[in-house]
Amino acid sequence: MADAPPPGTQAVQRVARILRVLGANNRVGLKVADIAFEAELERPTAHRLLLALCHEGLARQDADRRFFLGPFAYELGLAAAPELDLRAMFAPALNAVAEESGDTTFLTVRSRFDTVCLDRREGTYPIKALTVEVGARRPMGTTAGGIALLASLPQEEAREVIAFNAPRLPRYGRINAEILTRLVERARELGYALNFNDITPGVSGIGVVVPERPGLPPLALGIAAISSRLEEDRRAEVVALMRREAERAVASRPRGAARGG
Fold first, then answer.
1. DSSP strand pairing (114-121 vs 137-139)
2. What Cα–Cα distance (Å) separates residue 200 from each residue in 113, 133, 223?
3. How far is CA 7 from CA 3, 10, 13, 113, 130, in A?
4. CB 169 within 8 A of CB 198
5. How far apart, in whole angstroms, are the C-alpha atoms of residue 261 and residue 248?
6. Taking the complete model, does pTM exceed 0.90, yes or no?
7. Is 222 within 8 Å of 144 (Cβ atoms)?
8. Domains in the chain, start-ordered, CATH in brackets?
9. What is the pLDDT of residues 46-76, one digit of tens each?
10. 249-258 as b/e, with b when 16 or more CB fall inside 10 Å?
11. How many CB atoms lie within 10 A of CB 247?
């Protein structure tokens, strides 16, 4: 985990917490009271910081007094984009898995205690499980890809992540720290993450970690489908497909290949 922050950086930590909360709820926005609760701040403090963020373009407020990430946050994201364009790099993998499996496929990246959905492809099966939007930030372990990433961590680090996220987990379905711990243990036994009706009734998912490579952040491929499509007799086939495409994606660019190169 990250080292303890240096002294005198409390304001920066508070702003970072607010930005993460906004990022996790940017599709619907949040009001001051909700942001203060999520960021564990007093309401006047949260309101003061939000106004400052709006002034700088890092946040914005709509007519319903809900706050969202602002245009400057988008500009910073573009400037901070990695040398490897991960969405372009994994587009063929997402396309192949979605086409061959028929199910919705996701590319997920770790972001400290969270995961972020970088990209998504819808499968051809008529009933779809569109469980996570592109750009959505979720506590690590609330998606199949997140469970796979959590299971890949050293045990002590995984326990720290679960403990940190424990208060947040129930907002994302029928999940708590105890259930997530069992899902992580099962992923380690199986070699892939399996959420079979564990988080959302009737919806299941499988996640596999993308092979490590210098310069790549921790990534996972995941699929989500109605549970009848991920019964035991089909899982091995789906896992093999996802691993094959993850390995092809990692091998598709030479080391150090820059975006557009």
1. antiparallel
2. 21, 16, 14
3. 12, 8, 11, 22, 42
4. no
5. 18
6. no
7. yes
8. 10-78 (1.10.10.10), 86-251 (3.30.450.40)
9. 999 999 999 999 999 999 999 999 999 888 8
10. bbeebeeeee
11. 13
